[in-house]
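Changelog-linked ticket: calcium ion example.
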Amino acid sequence: MAYPGYGGYGGPMPMPGGMPMPGGPMGAQPPGAFPGYGGFPENDPMWGYFRAVAGQDGEIDAEELQRCLTQCGFSGSYAPFSLETCRVMIAMLDRDFTGKMGFSEFKDLFTALNGWKQNFMMFDQDRSGTVEPHEMAQAITSMGYRVSPQALNGIIKRYSKGGRIFFDDYVACCVKLRTLTDNFRRRDVMQQGTVNFQYDDFIQCTMTI
Ligand SMILES: [Ca+2]
Ligand SMILES: [Ca+2]
């Protein structure tokens, strides 16, 4: 049984449009510093920006994330992300279960978002802000997910409006597909495409994102 990867958005991480980049390029670290800044986020150019968005509690909630993504112009000419999509984004990467987004989670989100945006723009060539159902199917397949045509149809129907898929819904779909696949794969120790779920575990996996 082939397992999905998340290919298609490797490579260097471009900064989102309008995103402030204090401290110059990401690669400019002092000599002798460990790759990845050795666990000192203060040395990371995105740290100051994260702190400003996160506010007093030092973490980013759904409202803060929505404001940040709107203000930094990430959506560009596309409609801003709904609060619900922002909630899903936070839940997807909430590894420490705080219900909010810490610094490393925030950085992971931007890496993923950049990939999905590039993917979406590749299909939305006339910049209408939407992609066609068959393009959505191609996008999901190109990300490496191996699902049946039936599953694909169901997913696309769920995330369409008037027969087309908007950027916000596209991202919401990608976020959910990735999170559920991650959750499943983590339990599929033999990587065989089959898992036995306890009811409570299943509910946690699906209802918390
Ligand atoms: Ca906050
Ligand atoms: Ca968190």
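Closing comment: Example verified and attached. The CA atoms of residues 120 and 167 lie 7 Å apart. The first strand starts at residue 130 and ends at 131.
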